[in-house]
Amino acid sequence: MLTKPRPIRLKGRSFLALALTPELPLEDWLAGLDDLAARSAGFFLRRPVVLDVGDLDVDKAELHDLVEKLGQRNVRVMGIEGARPSMLGPDMPPPMSDGRPASDFEEPQAGEDAEGAAPEAVGKAPGQTVQDGPVVGAALQSVVITEPVRSGQSLFFPESDVTIVGSVASGAEIVAGGSIHVYGTLRGRALAGTAGNDGARIFCRKLEAELIAINGFYQTAEDMEPDLRGRAVQAWLEGHALKTGILG
Amino acid sequence: MGKVIVVTSGKGGVGKTTSTAALGAALAQNGDKVVVVDFDVGLRNLDLVMGAERRVVYDLVNVIQGEAKLPQALIRDKRVETLYLLPASQTRDKDNLTPEGVEKVVAALKKAFDWVICDSPAGIERGATLAMRHADVAIVVTNPEVSSVRDSDRIIGLLDSKTLKAENGERMEKHLLLTRYDPTRAERGDMLKVDDVLEILSIPLLGIIPESMDVLKASNLGSPVTLADDSSAPARAYFDAVRRLKGEAVPVTVPGEKRGFFGKFFGRKAA
Question: Do the chains contact at A152 and B154, CB–CB below 8 Å?
Fold first, then answer.
């Protein structure tokens, strides 16, 4: 039949997923995950997760068991990268490949959950707003926010540096592909270099943060040097260690 | 056209209802026409604080559902004749508040009154977001302690995103009302300092209401504190807040801080 009036539309779209790389022994790795989840509740909530098992030597049953254990922790795996096709039965998440360190992000459409909002992101398309809840920014070099970031707001700029002229409240979150600069007090979370950028740094005028992270290496408030609290601080990566020091 | 004020906080028990009643009564004593609206459907309290609990026939939900006309549901205060109450329903749940219904009621009240003061329920769910949706001005009620301050910060974020004003790209006028301020505890360092709260929330200060037995006494009597004893410390603080709300420049004093010979006023930016 060639009379079908309209073809099915096949559109491409890319999303940014959190890639987890389990390590052996799995029990220890899961314990570490539990520790992370306990310290930052809701960390995996509504985040798409991909399991990267390319370097993991497990058999089909063990992988199945791992996905189930993650499910019990409310970590829902949307796909598995680096597994042999024979390891993934129909009851497992589908295989994924060709993952890039960072991918383009689509602007979220204004749905019923979208809350248009205040802080103005200079240098962005007019009318674009920062939202309460997760926000996704277009590919940009740098973003400037000129208002305080309030508790519950999450700014997500996977491919840019972010500068905030104001404070970041406790319970707010800044996620940037590049560096994060806060000209105010950083009380919430700052996650820089999330797209695999080891060179990214975090700067703030006053450190009261709940969590800082660069390319996945993080420190919670508890891990931070007590003398750094309340001071102007920068954070950077040296190898796999997150370093912090007084600014200036 | 009247002004719509939402009294909100995120956290419960910080003094939203007390402040709604006190500010409403203070505004009405100047001769302005004021209606206080209880949005806390299912847990109504404003009728008690206003001393009108035995006169409630119809409520906000009845009006929204078309079971009563707006004038039937409005209760006029016995002490101040320009002060009215629109009570919430105690028996229905807040799903009965529809965005369209609330919009209609607020629009009608705006036409008839100089001030429409919406007492928001705690939380950030439907009742709270509907109470703030049509506001021109927000009064954020905060206690000087960390959990209240963080919840207020969350609410400010919502005021800047979920309200009609924000959606139209306008700025919501926001004021901080610091309540239950205890000078002795502040001296001991048990409470956050005024400057700390202002630094975190960074919105202008409308007033500081001292913690006082007068507030509790007035509530139990069913009288807004600005009606029960207008010379008490909290009442005077509310009267000052109202003057600032109307645009007057009244310096803010921190309760308990001794005044010098010249009156030790603080160069804080008032609302």
Answer: yes
Among partner residues B153, B162, B199, which is closest to A115 by beta-carbon distance? Answer: B162
Whole-angstrom distance, CA of residue B181 vs CA of residue B176: 13
Please state whether the peptide bond connecting residue A25 to the residue before it is cis, i.e. omega within 30 degrees of 0: yes
Min Cα–Cα distance to chain B from A244, Å: 24
Q: How confident is the model at residue A104 (pLDDT cuts 50, 70, 90)?
A: very low
Distance in Å, alpha carbon of B130 to nearest chain A alpha carbon: 14
- A51 pLDDT higher than 90: no
Alpha-carbon A173 to chain mean position: 10
Count the Cβ atoms, other than its own, within 10 Å of residue A171.
20
Phi, psi of A154 (to 5 degrees): -130, 115
Determine the Cα–Cα distance for residues A6 and B141; give it in Å rounded to an integer: 57
In this prediction the pTM is: 0.69
The C-alpha atoms of residue A127 and residue B230 are separated, in whole angstroms, by: 48
The count of CB pairs under 8 A between chains A and B is 57
A17: Cα within 13 Å, side-chain hemisphere: 22
Edge-first strand listing for the sheet containing B34-38: B75-76, B83-86, B34-38, B115-119, B3-8, B137-142, B173-181, B205-210
